[in-house]
Amino acid sequence: MPNAAPIIHTSAPETDQAIDRTVPDFPVAQSSDEDNYFQTNTAPQYLDELRKETSEFIRFHQATGKKVVLVTSGGTTVPLENNTVRFIDNFSAGTRGATSAEYFLESGYAVIFLHREFSLLPYSRHYSHTTNCFLDYMAEIDGKIEINPKYSKSMLEIYQKYQHARDQNLLLVLPFTTVNQYLFSLKVISKELHQLQTKALFYLAAAVSDFFLPMSKLPEHKIQAQDHNGGKLVVNLDPVPKFLRRLVDSWAPGAMITSFKLETDENILLKKANQALDRYCHQLVIGNLLQTRKKEIVFVKKEGEHPVVWYRLTDEELANGVEIESLIIPNVIKEHEEWIRLHK
Ligand code: 9Z3
């Protein structure tokens, strides 16, 4: 839950894991190999705590009988230094993930929300990253600070849903910052979710970097301008391993897996979505373009009567605040129900 004192924090680098660069012949990671990734990159120190929290949450919902969805959300950072001053990042604010989590909760799912720390959270998203400062939602009434009556009705509705999720232990909020933290967390959570078999759903909306600097190549300290040719910094990144393959065939076989495919060129979106399905053999790819992601998305499946279906909002719906996730989630849930039915 987004409670007052979360135990795990991810945004500060673990500097005591810095590698001694004076040791010669430090092995260079073969990052093309998925399994090798987890041997040559260091696990976050809090990983056991994350496993414990996940396992307790899943055990709790084995008893309630609820379906559990893992929603990943937000961008990942790629540190360029171990004591991280510089890093590569991407645009994602976590709107898709935070919004989707709310619709899943309202549809009766328990949600594990693995998100980029300080990106949008379910429910608080309505107030946290708007152009309003949170103080703009307040008003001084008779010498006391209160919610501005203009916002109080809508805020009460959101607050009640948020409290319901808290009271019923329906939302487990777990953070990551770097792509390395994301990958280790995904693996651990997936293996825990495996226990739920078909009742587990993966909804991978985080914008995960395709490139990273393996720990074996990461400089310990801030890169100095004079160390480089003419003050230029040339960054040579490795490909991030194709973790989806492992997720499908060994971390959580049995679960239904939905991934997102992001492109900026509409001419290649469907081809890339199909390629992902061929490569990883999971159940559903949701394609979207950066430019229109809040307005239209496409479901791409391998089989079935309608392997490609577009969902679109009209301009009027958009202007009235209708969210595309209100179309996405019921249809993902339909696919999940069908998945459970077929694998009984
Ligand atoms: C998405 O495509 C998400 O819908 C967005 C949401 C990141 C576009 P916002 O956070 O944006 O609401 O602003 N996520 C998946 C992106 C991704 O990295 N997919 C990988 C790929 O395309 C596969 S897992 O290769």
TrEMBL record:
GO terms for molecular function: phosphopantothenate--cysteine ligase activity. It holds the Pfam family DFP. SUPFAM superfamilies: CoaB-like. One of its GO terms (biological process) is coenzyme A biosynthetic process. Residues 67-117, 193-310 form the DNA/pantothenate metabolism flavoprotein C-terminal domain. It comes from the Eukaryota. Belongs to the PPC synthetase family. This is DNA/pantothenate metabolism flavoprotein C-terminal domain-containing protein. It comes from Wickerhamomyces pijperi.
